């Protein structure tokens, strides 16, 4: 993995050479160092095939997610950024959060910009594979729900984990390529199209412009981005079945995309109706303009992409509150999107309904069903534990951020956007029109820790901390 | 119940007569009407003893909680307040929320002020009895945990539900009387002492002064209030055992008071340490002054009393975020305090730890223990459902409040303070130095609905809405 990340630096180096930038040695040296470290680790661990118990899987996941960001900081440090800022930018990239401490992106060397996009793209596929392969095995956060499907698939289509990974990777690459071509056709430069396709499909949200997607606001590219961000929030395991095997039925019968679609449309309609009824003078030229802008930004926040096409934090109070709520929602399981995710929301609501029904009829057993199957109480508990842990982390991070001196709205939205890996917060300090550059150093470390926690779906890290874990 | 509420109006009438106020006919007429309605209902339903299935218990609870506020509005309407404001004040009183739409309290007829205090006092004992007797029976929100204790008690000490109710009532009355005497000894007028003891022990928070407890800030009464608010957040079933039966062991072995105490002290220490380290010029004269103020207001918010002794929303950003978080915490189960409550917090955290341990050792069954007993998966699920429903209600109410035109901090803290029955929100509009008087009419209805939902511990209302409920 480390060696791969090192190899991933080479394109950035080549681009900088092509641009006659003086940054190219950075990437070549970092690349060489990383490949050497990676090869060394591989040789060291290569002898014995690792035993793959839950404990080893956890350990490996956590070690990788701590080692990769360290390597990823090297180009930023060489570029002259502080250790804090470099780590923040690398973690924010690899976790696909997309919160940035950099300004003046329009005049930043293209090597660095490409490096940021590549980090997110690698982070994205890493997360998708983790969600499809590792989390169901570890029974984390209710992901065991999706294990049956994978083993279904492994019986019929995908004999081995490496094949699942390879096929998912191909689909990811394919959709990213299509996205880049469409972006270019919509008028983006080749560089912008490639960089943005990488950060769209990973739900990452790093842009090559300070104005984020506002740079392309009201161009066809904004429509394309709305579509591809939505796609990035769909379950990739099912997209793989659909695209590589022509099986549309699992996709059509999955309840997640439906809820995801209607939530995005619903929120946009609420915003537009409220805008038409109340806001005077209007922010939008006409209803359709408003709906387009609302949909772009809601999908961007729900999937956790974090592109902003407009300063939605100035549209009004309900929009602020809705965007804060949307920050938590996330996309579908098995995508690069973040947050609580559709299936957990649906299962939680069904658990509430089932419990209410159970109280009324104590003599009957009321079961929670999801996608036609009975949800085991083990899964139910693991979903509830996830949601609770998620919100507890959010509250603790909010308090810590406020203690570093951030104002309440910034602290709360900063904690929300970090734990959900969304990117922009709310308010003048860290809102969509601003960056995380000027928040206190301590706040940056709180944010990046929270990003890692959110990305690892918590339980991995918490398990590592459990004393029993170490007692063997 | 309705007749009792009518009878409860008589003291207010007498006080107004004594004050030569022209308000006294209001109370006598309202009182007569209520007693008549109550007597009529009693005669109508008196024939058949009601069957006490879960369904009937739910229905009764909800009907009572809708009927009582209607009766309680009569004095406010007669006093000249609008229907919205009267309903808000009555619901806020009976649910012991204590958010008010009235200003100029210092010059308001004492009959109305006493009526507000009596509403909260009645609401408080109603809630305590509901929590001790009805909720465990209905298995709502994990309250079944406390059923074993009640049936323990019923076997040894308290043969029947009426006796539990009577004994709890006596202890409630006793502590309220002591509280009033102590307040008077601390220099309050007799009227203030009685009114404030009623709103302290019910965790209600209505005051007789616009400045709330700020009127008595830095007097001995503030110390007394800190102590009695803390007592109001303790489990009354255990206080009853302690006071009437001298059994201190159940009290000492309950983990709730400990967590409750340390959370309150912990938050205060964080606030004071942060204040000493960062805030310049200081808000407080010296460390002890700061600790005293922080502890008073934190306990006030945690228990949901909602007295404010200082404009803590201006102390700084961390204080705002901590108070917002504290709004959700609540006191112990079986008290008049509100919020998520200590035992649900502790069980949720233990469920997280147990789940993490379970993942590491899939072959072993890891059980959640609370107070030395194994928590059944049914109870666990019901606690998780409660927490989820609580937060979902909070999010929906936040969005609705923001749609009525409230700013984000007011909308979010307004939703939090309503669902938790705390009282004051945050920010200039509804903060501790202000009232709910100037929020939009629609927002008042959203708030009072949320208060009722929070007070009924949700599942009651939710169950009523379940279509299966009606199918029988
Ligand atoms: K993102
Ligand atoms: K209150």
What would you note in describing this structure?
The first copy, chain A, is an all-alpha fold. Chain A has a domain at 1-48. In chain A, 68% of the residues lie in helices and 1% in strands. Chain A has 22 helices and two strands. A two-stranded antiparallel sheet of chain A has the order 1-2. In chain A, a hairpin with a 2-residue loop joins β1 and β2 (373-374). In chain A, α6 packs antiparallel against α8 (161-185) and α10 packs parallel to α14. Chains A and B meet through α4, α13, α15, α16 and α17 of A and α3, α12, α14, α15 and α16 of B. The structure holds potassium ion (K) (2 copies). Residues 96-98, 203-205, 304-306, 421-423 of chain A line the site of one potassium ion (K). Chains A, B: K(+) binds at residues 96-97, 204, 305, 421-422.
Provide the fold topology.
The structure is a homodimer of 472-residue chains.
Chain A lengths: L1 H6 L1 H10 L5 H23 L7 H25 L4 H12 L15 H29 L8 H10 L4 H25 L4 H12 L18 H13 L3 H10 L3 H5 L1 H24 L8 H16 L14 H13 L12 H19 L8 E2 L2 E2 L2 H27 L4 H12 L7 H4 L10 H15 L3 H7 L1 H5 L1
Antiparallel strand pairs in A: 1-2
Helix pairs in contact in A: 2-3, 2-6, 3-4, 4-5, 4-6, 4-21, 5-6, 5-20, 6-8, 6-9, 8-9, 8-10, 8-11, 10-14, 13-14, 16-17, 17-18, 17-20, 18-20
The complex binds potassium ion (2 copies).
One potassium ion binds next to loops of chain A.
Main location (chains A, B): membrane
GO molecular function (chains A, B): metal ion binding; potassium:chloride symporter activity
Membrane topology (chains A, B): Multi-pass membrane protein
């Amino acid at each position: 993995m480390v060696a791969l990340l090192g190899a991933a630096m080479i394109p950035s180096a080549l681009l900088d050479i092509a641009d006659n930038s003086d940054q190219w040695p950075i990437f070549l040296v970092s690349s060489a160092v990383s490949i050497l470290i990676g090869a060394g680790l591989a040789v060291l661990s290569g002898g014995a095939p690792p035993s793959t118990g839950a404990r080893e899987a956890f350990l490996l996941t956590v070690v990788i997610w701590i080692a990769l960001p360290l390597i990823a900081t090297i180009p930023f440090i060489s570029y002259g950024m502080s250790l804090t800022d470099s780590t923040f930018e690398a973690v924010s990239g690899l976790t696909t959060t997309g919160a940035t401490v950099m300004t003046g992106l329009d005049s930043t060397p293209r090597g660095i910009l490409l490096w940021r996009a590549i980090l997110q793209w690698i982070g994205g596929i890493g997360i998708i594979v983790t969600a499809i392969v590792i989390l169901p095995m570890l029974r984390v956060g209710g992901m065991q729900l999706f294990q049956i499907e994978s083993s279904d698939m492994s019986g019929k289509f995908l004999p081995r984990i490496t094949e699942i990974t390879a096929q998912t990777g191909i689909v990811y690459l394919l959709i990213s390529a299509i996205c880049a071509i469409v972006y270019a056709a919509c008028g983006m430069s080749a560089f912008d199209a490639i960089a943005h396709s990488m950060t769209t499909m990973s739900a990452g949200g790093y842009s090559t412009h300070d104005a984020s997607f506002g740079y392309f606001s009201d161009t066809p590219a904004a429509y394309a981005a709305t579509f591809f961000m939505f796609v990035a929030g769909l379950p990739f395991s099912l997209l793989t079945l659909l695209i590589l095997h022509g099986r549309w039925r699992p996709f059509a019968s999955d309840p997640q995309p439906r809820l995801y679609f209607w939530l995005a449309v619903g929120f946009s309609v609420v915003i537009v109706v409220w805008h038409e009824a109340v806001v005077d003078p209007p922010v939008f030229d006409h209803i359709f303009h408003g709906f387009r802008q609302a949909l772009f930004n809601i999908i961007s926040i729900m999937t956790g992409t974090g592109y902003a096409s407009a300063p939605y934090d100035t549209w009004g109070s309900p929009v602020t509150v809705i965007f804060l709520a949307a920050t938590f929602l996330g996309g579908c399981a098995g995508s690069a999107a973040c947050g609580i995710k559709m299936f957990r929301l649906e299962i939680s609501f069904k658990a509430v309904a089932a419990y209410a029904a159970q109280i009324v009829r104590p003599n009957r057993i009321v079961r929670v069903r999801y996608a036609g199957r009975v949800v085991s109480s083990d899964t139910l508990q693991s979903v509830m534990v996830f949601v609770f842990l998620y919100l507890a982390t959010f509250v603790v991070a909010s308090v810590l951020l406020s203690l570093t001196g951030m104002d309440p709205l910034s602290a709360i939205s900063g904690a929300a956007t970090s734990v959900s890996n969304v990117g922009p917060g709310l308010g003048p300090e860290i809102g969509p029109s601003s960056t995380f550059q000027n928040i206190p150093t301590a706040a940056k470390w709180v944010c990046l820790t929270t990003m890692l926690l959110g990305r690892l779906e918590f339980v991995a890290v918490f398990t590592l901390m459990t004393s029993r874990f170490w007692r063997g």
